[in-house]
Amino acid sequence: MTSPVDLTLVAEHRRGHGALYDALNCGRINVAGLRQALAMLPQPKAAGNRLVLPVDVTNWLRPDAPYSPDRLFCHVYGRSGRSSDQFIPGWPYSFVSALETGRTSWCQLLDAARFGPGDDIAETTAAQVRRVISDLIEQGQWEAGEPDVLIVFDTGYDAPRMAYLLDSLPVEALGRMRTDRVMRRPAPTLKEYAAAYPQGGRPPKHGKEFRFAKPDTWGDPDTETVRVTDRYGTAKAMAWNRIHPRLTTRSAWIDHTGELPVINGMLIRLQVDHLPGGQYPLPVWLWSSKTGMTSGDIDLRWQAFLCRFDLERTFRMIKQALGWTRPKLRSSATPGRSRPDPPASPSPGSGEGFGTSARNFTARPVHRNPQLSYRAG
Question: Cβ(106)–Cβ(348) under 8 Å?
């Protein structure tokens, strides 16, 4: 899409560009009905025949619109390392999609929500995921007895806090952790504590520190797996059970009432031989809200996380091929009326499933007002 004129469904657009922008600014859309329609469609299954929903943010950059409301500073990665990263004004959008299984990069978008200046990213994302899960359950996409829905987050989200906010739903939170995190081991049992401290005292709430950057604090892993892959060579995964963060009444938990919770989970460290682009492979730390996993469950989690990057390829397609961010819109509410929410998951290579084929986008001719005269030159 090169302009908003491509959004029209008629063969020829008989109005001017100004009239179309005015229609987008003053138009409306039944957002709840659209979400239910997307949840009603057949959903792809992955990772052991379960729903896998990655969540990520992409930005509609508007640096040339100083008078547009609700703009935030959006983080944009540079091409020559982290030192070239920039913060550009724009509108950040959070997308939730469903991953497919097999060798395909297609994923089915389910919801999109814009972050406002006063929104808490974790709470807003949790409300969005809760809304999507409720729609999927209402439409019969998940029933009691089936595996929990796997929600996959990247480093920008605090996985333990997301697991706490989504505790009432049949979901499992899986997210990547920063390499400088410090977490805690499980607290010792009363018998272990009595043997270690015969003089008595109050039992501790947390165990010893687990520093990601210090291998001497890791100890022996509870589970280890080794798999040979085509793209990454040998993939080695180590997992520790019941690892949790030590929460304090600061930052995101400053308004928490009562005793701070202990959010146990499974910590996974993934190390591969090489990357497809030839870069040096750094270890990846993952945290899952499910505990007591087997070696097969561990492999399933890190494979599901790697498939999360399909959503980033979808971002590239809707921006470059579909031209989602091409229109120069002024109002922050207008992009929600022109976003390309797909009604079906397209098949690889077909370019279909988005209402209009991505390969068949052609500009509609704009008819000028015949009552006005134009001079050449």
Answer: yes
Alpha helices, H only, the chain: 17-26, 31-40, 121-138, 159-165, 190-196, 295-307, 310-320, 335-338
Q: How far is CA 102 from the centre of its chain?
A: 20
Instruction: Yes or no: say if 52 and 150 are a contact pair by the CB < 8 Å rule.
Output: yes
List, for residues 285-311, the tens digit of each pLDDT value.
Answer: 999 999 999 999 999 999 999 999 899
DSSP assignment of 46-60 equals BTTTB-EEEEEEEEE
Pairing relationship of beta strands 171-177 and 149-153 according to DSSP bridges: parallel
Q: Which two tokens stand for residue 165?
A: 């906010």
Which token pair is 361? 């986008």
What's the pLDDT tens digit per position in 312-355?
A: 999 999 888 888 888 777 778 777 665 554 433 333 333 333 33
User: For the chain, what are the domain ranges?
Assistant: 1-154+316-369, 176-307
